[in-house]
Design goal:
- The protein has about 240 residues and is mostly helical.
- It has one domain (about 15-239).
- The protein has ten helices and no strands.
- The protein has helices at about 15-35, 40-60, 75-95, 115-150, 150-165, 165-170, 170-175, 175-185, 185-210, 215-239.
- α4 (about 115-150) runs antiparallel to α5 (about 150-165).
- It is globular, with a radius of gyration of 18 Å.
């Protein structure tokens, strides 16, 4: 994965403090979003992105190095195609026995359509996906690559992405029938599954970021998957 698409090609980090500070920002945002003031989710997500961008600059990184240069036509086309494929796969999944149960989520049952639209069209793409892609496939991946190389940077960023999901996953077993049937209702097992699955997804998204040299591709994949899941879970709950 080393080459012209290396997210941190060129230049050496000035010191280690921006990387440490970036992890600190993510811990703070995670707690603010999930424990302290979840109603201000978009505010904390935006503040997190801003702080990470400032830290990237302090680390000597240019926007292109962490995935926000001008996207190529190849990257844009890939983003559109992959997003369409993911949406199609999820729609088909709602009709398949054994898979459709994954969309049976009590957290979305009874929620108004306007709120679901807000989740799918605003909060997920502009909050969740934007923050997590800038953080884990953008700034952290670039900072880590300059220090430990591309392969270990992907591993470390993906492990961090898995750990990022510990707190928000604690209640998923009690609200999702598929998870409960697989692991029971114990929050530790459900959280462990979420960490493992998120880590694997993180590796895939890092691969897309490096291959297409831009965050637009992993962002499109991430936003489409999460937004489609919300919409389909709501439709399944109302059917």
């Amino acid at each position: 994965m080393v080459g012209p698409q290396d997210p941190a090609a060129g230049g050496a980090p000035a010191s280690g403090w921006p990387l440490v500070a970036a992890f600190g920002v993510l811990v703070a945002v995670n707690l603010l979003n999930n424990v302290v003031a979840a109603n201000l989710y978009l505010l904390w997500a935006g503040a997190g992105v801003l702080a990470l961008v400032i830290l990237a600059q302090a680390d000597g990184l240019q926007p292109r190095q962490w995935g926000l240069g001008r996207p190529t036509r190849r990257a844009v086309v890939a983003a559109l195609i992959l997003a369409a494929l993911i949406a199609l796969v999820l729609v088909v999944g709602t009709r398949l026995p054994g898979i459709s149960e994954a969309f049976d989520d009590e957290r979305i049952s009874g929620v108004r359509g306007g709120w679901v639209a807000f989740l799918a069209l605003v909060r997920v793409p502009l909050g969740t996906a934007a923050l997590e892609e800038v953080a884990f496939r953008g700034v952290l991946l670039a900072m880590l690559t300059r220090r430990i190389g591309s392969v270990w940077a992907v591993v470390a960023s993906s492990v961090a992405f898995g750990c990022w999901h510990v707190v928000p996953s604690l209640g998923v077993a009690g609200s999702n029938a598929a998870v409960a049937s697989l692991l029971g209702t114990h929050p530790v097992w459900a959280s462990a599954l979420a960490v493992l699955a998120s880590g694997i997804v993180g590796v895939v998204l890092c691969g897309l970021r490096i291959r297409y040299d831009h965050l637009v591709v992993p962002w499109a994949v991430h936003a489409t998957a999460n937004s489609s899941a919300y919409l389909l879970a709501w439709l399944v709950a109302g059917s």
